[in-house]
TrEMBL record:
Gene3D superfamilies: 1.20.5.2050. It comes from Cladocopium goreaui. This is AP2/ERF domain-containing protein. Residues 128-153 are annotated as: Disordered. Residues 128-138 have a biased composition (Basic and acidic residues). Residues 139-153 have a biased composition (Basic residues).
Amino acid sequence: DPNFTSEVPGVQWHKRVQKWQVEINLKSDQKKIYGGLFTEKAAAEAKALEIQEKAGLQRQVKPVATLSELPEFHPKVPYPGVKWRQPEQQWHACCAVGGSTRNFRVRPKDHSEAELERSFQVAVAWKKKQEKEKEKSGKAVKSKVKPGRKQRK
């Protein structure tokens, strides 16, 4: 909901308590600074900016693009299991191997045609490699005989 979003890093709407929460992540030492809960968005944003300034963080308010503003891409030749994730702005490849699902994401450096195609091909290559591994593991499981057991004839 656009009314419950903030462009200031560290400010988010806390749904359960129906208030604005301020929590700043310090990437340098993996710690968080809790700034409190606020009923007013402006007060929460002011507190977040104050904490960032005290901590020496050089963060600016960054505009967030709405989903409709983000570009949507479709490959010329689609490949099953490789899709463009519009909200993430990256290619997502997914494959189930040996009972677990493996995910791989590739974000293009820019939105040029060549870079989009290159990153798509990287995702497809990963997917093909996983499919080969899946094929090998499937054959290997069928041919295995547990130690100490006789193979049926």
